[in-house]
Amino acid sequence: MPLSPGARLGPYEILAALGAGGMGEVYRARDARLGRDVAIKILPDHLASTPGFRERFAREARALSAVEHQNICPLYDIGTDGSVDYLVMQYVEGETLAQRIRRGAIPRLRRSSSPHRSPRASRPPMNGDPPS
Fold first, then answer.
1. How far apart are CA 1 and CA 20, in angstroms?
2. Of 27, 44, 62, 110, which residue has the fewest beta carbons closer than 10 angstroms?
3. What ranges make up the beta strands (E) of the chain?
4. DSSP conformational letter for 114
5. Rounded to 5 degrees, what angle do the CA atoms 91, 53, 37 make?
6. Which one-letter DSSP state was computed for residue 6?
7. What is the pLDDT at residue 9?
8. Helix, strand or coil, per DSSP, at residue 132
């Protein structure tokens, strides 16, 4: 069920569709409580009614909430409104990955050649990691 501008999911008012893929539809929305724009990902109807996909969506929320990294949008909220499950994340203004790829190759990150590199340095910190 694509959402139209003006539709509501809990305290969030849908402003515009941002994109859709195999596992969800993403919308720009306004958080009425905090007065900020957010990104909302919903589980489409055809997946919500398929066994296992609601649990997979919940696992995605738990995994996202466990990671803190400057290149990963934080998870603000999760919810269900009627039969619609949704994740609420930081809205980041800018180009999509598809737009960026059309501009040309994305430079690779350089890896440190230091043999004393921490194994944790190769992944984003997760909640529960000891401070570095």
1. 12
2. 110
3. 8-9, 12-21, 24-31, 36-42, 75-81, 84-90
4. -
5. 15
6. T
7. 95
8. coil
